[in-house]
Design brief:
By secondary structure, the chain is α/β, with parallel strands linked by helices. The protein has two domains: 115 residues, Aspartate Aminotransferase, domain 1 (Alpha-Beta Complex); 224 residues, Aspartate Aminotransferase, domain 2. 38% of the residues lie in helices and 15% in strands. The strands form three sheets. The protein has a seven-stranded mixed β-sheet with strand order 2-8-7-6-5-3-4, sandwiched between helices. The protein has a three-stranded antiparallel β-sheet with strand order 9-12-11, with helices on one face. Strands 1-10 form a two-stranded parallel ribbon. Helix 7 links the parallel strand 6 and strand 7. Helix 3 packs across helix 4 and helix 3 packs across helix 8. The longest helix has 24 residues. It is globular. It binds 4'-deoxy-4'-aminopyridoxal-5'-phosphate. 4'-deoxy-4'-aminopyridoxal-5'-phosphate binds next to helix 3. Its cofactor is pyridoxal 5'-phosphate. GO terms for molecular function: aromatic-amino-acid transaminase activity; histidinol-phosphate transaminase activity; pyridoxal phosphate binding. It is an enzyme of class 2 (transferase).
Length: 354
Amino acid sequence: MPQIRTDLDAIPAYVPGRSAPGAIKLASNEVTQGPLPAAQQAIVEAAAAGNRYPDISAYALRTELAEQFDTTPENIAVGCGSSALCQQIIQATCTSGDEVLFGWRSFEAYPILTRVALATPVQVPLAADGSLDLDAMAAAITDRTRIIFLCTPNNPTGPALAASDVIRFLEQVPERVTVALDEAYYEYCRRDDKVEGFELALRGAHPNVVAMRTMSKAYGLAGLRVGYMAGSAEIIAAVNKMSVPFSVSAVAQAAAIASLRSGAELLARTDAVIAERERCRAALLELGFSVPVSEANFLWLPLDDAALPFNEWCAERGVLVRAFAGTGVRVSIGAPEEMAAFLDAATAWTHREN
Ligand code: PMP
């Protein structure tokens, strides 16, 4: 038997949202339509050249992103999903025993990737409305803190951070500590005063800020795995060093470039999801559920001990949502008919016999 790291038993595996044939899947914050039409065509064309390794530096994709964000390719990294970029930035900043700070509950991968890197997760409870408690996070910084994740909008609860609150927070963070704004759901946030992580990372007053987005959510490329990050050339170079070679496939690079050029179609899609989110939230509030404001493509039901029973109740009615035991349930926003099926299940739940 080969010797495996003895600390691995204590690290939970990442649990993906459930899926089952024929079921309505509202468990992984995916979009229900396929990739945008231009991306579908790019995928077919790139697949024909699949015998060759991709451009290791993803130069064309980084150039496209640099143009969109008015910067240079040296300030942009791409990765195999923004999950990989989370891992790379942790590895680029932490050595054994260093601390990674984040709100909790938040993206499930943060504590896992932290422990894989032999670093220590420091989890700061969210405020009562499901938003990040920035004052408590600032108070939790120690000499060992190397990186802070600010997930905005926060997965799984939904609220987004205001720019002014983030700027006040950054003023309390020593410059040696990297602050990573994880904007995986940015495209669904319509708050006028929201933080613009890419602006802060590229043109803000604090060189220790990076920001990340993903092509998995609004762009509908979850199956292709592309995420991107902006930051100082020094941090980006360090993040790139932590990558496995060729981590973004040629097909994914081509699909990402085509998707990024389809701005108007993307906006129409995200607008439809937002309208459905608001309709669904209003219906849930009407049914008596507590539902925090969401700026993402999901809603959060803080059901506490009822989270798992509610999850099973929905599954029995053909709707798969995402439960976090003892805490709550996250429901991704799908097509109107899928949300109608979910709301039927939720309505039946409120009428059930206990
Ligand atoms: N950050 C957050 C907050 C997420 O919710 C997710 C996906 N669940 C990711 C990052 C990673 O997305 P991907 O690796 O698909 O780009």
